[in-house]
Amino acid sequence: MTTFTRRKALALLGGSATAAGLASPALASNRKITVGALRFTSHSGSFIGFERGYFAEAGMDVEFKFFQAATPMAVAIASGDVDYAVTAMSGGLVSLADKGAVKVIGGALSEEKGIDGQKFLVSDAAYQAGVTTPALLGGKSYGITSAGSSFHYMGSKMAEAEGIELKFKPLQKVGAIIGALKSGQIDAWSIVPHLAKPLAGSGKVHIIGNVSDYLADYQVTTVFTSAKNASDEQQMTRDFLAGYSKGVSDYNSTMIDKAQGDEGVQELVDLIHKYVYADRPREKAAKSIINGTMRLNEGAAMNTASLQDQLSWFQAEGLVDQSISLETVIDPSYVQTLG
Q: What CA dihedral angle connects 32, 36, 38 and 42, to 10 degrees?
């Protein structure tokens, strides 16, 4: 098994990714582990697993490291600076998987009919100029973090369905995309509802469509780890997935199925607020957290049909090698596969 340092992992990506907030190398199974996350409600399975002691019950002392994009997280996993993470399947992740550095081991966030999901947004300037549906975005600028990101994939699939072309503008970080959209420097973007709805409420941004209309059952994010952990640390990996899955189950039953009523929702909002919109007062953060509710995959089940579609798109765009198979990217032995 090849040993990957942070420098080697970055080199494999052509130096295009910059990792942030990296931790010390992972320790042995059933001891301290580092989990990569974004401050999104879609990462609530990990937050609940930690706060309610599910990781501790599995013998794990979890520490979080936070990122602002998918590719830097993949680099951190490849180099051993982070043990497990939840993020979208980016072109950078696929390239690292091809080099034997990372493996997708489960599913996280999914689009689901009947659940309010990701939105297509436009700036107020574009909206006032008549761009009121995704079909009218032809020739417009569209914000992405980087080529091969989930934002790039969503925009491309929508454009393909509508028979239009977009001008993709890489801005590296979610915060930079938000600023550019609000100021009219870019015309459009797509993002999860806990960000989309407050942006639309500001009047500077407008919702013009749903991602699910173009990508039904889209496996938005995945659970992944290093290839070494997947092959050599199987008990630790199962323990992590067990703790994470308990957090996911709590999230779905409380926030979507309302099994504990409003009291349960408010209790979980308090927990999530420690990680999402933590810089806002609770009363302002709560609405956005609730608006961001989307189904997480029970038991970290993985939609392989959706992942194959994403891989095929990366290849069609020339972003990853044509010879890469889905089996190179995923290890389906840990969870149920769908699709």
A: -80
